[in-house]
Design brief:
- Residues 56-437 form the Amidohydrolase-related domain.
- This protein has 506 residues and is α/β, with parallel strands linked by helices.
- It has two domains: 2-58 and 397-443, Urease, subunit C, domain 1; 60-380, TIM Barrel.
- 38% of the residues lie in helices and 18% in strands.
- It contains 17 helices and 19 strands.
- The strands form four sheets. Strands 1, 2, 3, 4, 5, 16, 17, 18 and 19 form a nine-stranded mixed sheet that branches. A four-stranded parallel sheet has the order 6-7-8-10.
- The radius of gyration is 22 Å and the shape is globular.
- The relative contact order is 0.17.
- The structure holds zinc ion.
- Zinc ion (ZN) is lined by residues 64, 66, 244, 280, 332.
């Protein structure tokens, strides 16, 4: 099967033209870009897509998200990460989500992502109280049917909650402490065995489109042997190792309280940073941490909307760029950002850092944010040889935008309009591996209406469960609120809050 896109406006994100729109034709055969240039002719059997009023760009790589949170969209506000986690990832009284519901949840999340122009998902799937093979298989099955590309974890927490957050035990009632301490956490051996089985079962499924990744939750949430074991296993399978690092001030204080300093230097000291590793968030890093991350070839997924909503702080975009850290962009899950629309994230990344300093030369450029949303994300996902730019030999994962829309009216600089004007409503066609998965803005690989109808039938059951767990976990909230207040008032090595004038905190 072959396709010919004729004379479109094309943003290739290749090393030479970057995000500059050029008029080009693209020929795709067997899922791969076989030619891209100015004066190409179609082959007789090519299916022709006229490109005259269209913009073609690489599909977005959502470098950090959690499909698990799909059912939590629009549920919480004004909670900092540690308190929000107690709701979204209940500490007390949780029970297993059935695989059919996992599949439905994943399908709905994948539909919304594809319609938003996301062709690659880095989906860090956290099941509570723990993930099993049936649940993991349901995620793979859903994405196989949808036709999206994905790295799918494998998320694990293997230290007791109370050892991962500073001061919390002091502030929680004794019976709650006892209950949390009695909760099962998987051993390092159990997780590494699970991961090896998952690699064997799923890695490279769907013609290489679907890959397993290891995902230790965070350095403070896992045993050192698990961190190093996961890092080594990712390298063995040429896969991603995905981990949350220094998302909040509380985590900075956790490093000081429990690891004698920075969590990044702790990871480096035990060999838990590698070129296949992506740190989600990476906000509260020192300059030295940034050098360490860059030297290890480790990537960071920047997730500005989630960071804004949870009040986590503002990542040091320019300092990270200057240090040479590869950056991707992510939405994070639908409980902390309420949407998998990468275009929202792209626009926020382009805007947010302009108010952090007056020197205009330091502000993010459209070229930089589009690179982070495509090729940078692909690099972080260990997929930069495969996707992230439109180049001969790469897989045809791309989005075709209709330019006859208000977002592109009047037509000025299409790269700037993609970042600042477009919200996804101009998306016409989405291809993954050369296969059309979205046409006319609608997903054609699964029945969205049927999936939403199935959800409607089960919504009462889902919300009753969430309400029950929220109520149960209210028991930890006052204690976590006191912990949060104390941690955010503790002096630390850097300040990433905007407008926090308590200079003594640094
Ligand atoms: Zn996350």
């Amino acid at each position: 099967m072959s396709t010919f896109i004729r004379d479109a406006h094309v943003i290739t994100m290749d090393p030479i033209s970057g995000s500059t729109p050029l008029v080009r034709s693209i020929r795709i055969a067997d899922g791969v870009i076989v030619a891209i240039g100015e004066h190409l002719k179609p082959d007789p059997h090519d299916e022709i897509i006229e490109g005259r009023d269209r913009l073609v760009a690489p599909g977005f790589v959502n470098a950090h998200t959690h499909s698990w949170e799909m059912f939590y969209k629009g549920r919480y506000d004004n909670l900092p990460l540690e308190m929000w986690m107690a709701m979204s990832y209940p500490i007390l009284g949780d029970s297993r989500v059935a695989p059919d519901l996992v599949r439905l949840r994943t399908t709905l999340f994948g539909i919304e992502s594809l319609k938003a122009g996301v062709t690659t998902l880095v989906d860090d799937v956290l099941e509570t109280p723990g993930q099993d093979h049936e649940q993991l298989a349901a995620v793979f099955d859903a994405y196989e049917q949808l036709g999206v590309r994905a790295n799918i974890s494998g998320h694990v927490i293997n230290r007791p909650f109370l050892d991962t957050v500073p001061f919390a035990e002091e502030y929680l009632p004794d019976d709650v402490v006892r209950e949390i301490r009695s909760a099962h956490v998987p051993s390092t051996e159990e997780y590494l065995r699970f991961a090896r089985e998952a690699f064997a079962a799923h890695h490279g499924r769907a013609n290489g489109r679907l890959r397993f990744m290891v995902a230790p939750s965070a350095p403070q949430r896992c045993e050192p042997a698990l961190l190093t074991g996961a890092t080594e296993m990712a390298l063995e399978f040429a896969a991603e190792c995905h981990i949350h690092v220094l998302e909040t001030k509380t985590q900075l204080v956790t490093g000081d309280e429990s690891y004698g300093g920075s969590l990044v230097s702790y990871m480096a000291s035990i060999g838990a940073l590698s070129p296949n590793t992506t740190l989600a968030h990476g906000i509260w890093l020192t300059d030295a941490d940034m050098q360490t991350v860059a030297a290890a070839g480790t990537s960071i997924s920047h997730n500005p909307i989630s960071n804004l909503k949870l009040g986590s702080g503002i990542a040091a975009w320019r300092k990270l760029q200057n240090a040479g850290v590869n950056l991707g962009l992510g939405t994070d899950g639908c409980s902390s950002s309420d949407s998998p629309r990468m275009l929202d994230v792209v626009k926020t990344a382009a805007l947010l850092h302009k108010v952090t300093e007056p020197d205009i030369d330091q502000w993010p450029t459209v070229a930089e944010v589009l690179a982070a949303a495509t090729i940078g994300g692909a690099r972080s996902a260990v997929l930069d040889d495969v996707v992230g730019s439109l180049e001969v030999g790469k897989q045809a994962d791309l989005v075709i935008y209709d330019l006859e829309t208000m977002a592109f009216t009047p037509r000025q600089k299409l790269d700037l309009q993609l970042v600042y004007s477009e919200n996804g409503s101009s998306i016409d066609i989405v291809m993954v591996q050369g296969r059309v998965v979205v046409a006319g803005g609608e997903v054609i690989t699964v029945d969205e209406r049927a999936a939403r109808a199935e959800l409607a039938e089960r919504l009462d059951e889902i919300i009753e469960r969430q309400d029950r767990l929220d109520e149960r976990n209210q028991a930890v909230m006052p204690g976590l609120a006191r912990m949060y207040e104390r941690a955010t008032s503790t002096p630390g090595a850097v300040n990433r809050f905007s407008g926090d004038e308590r200079a003594w905190l640094v």
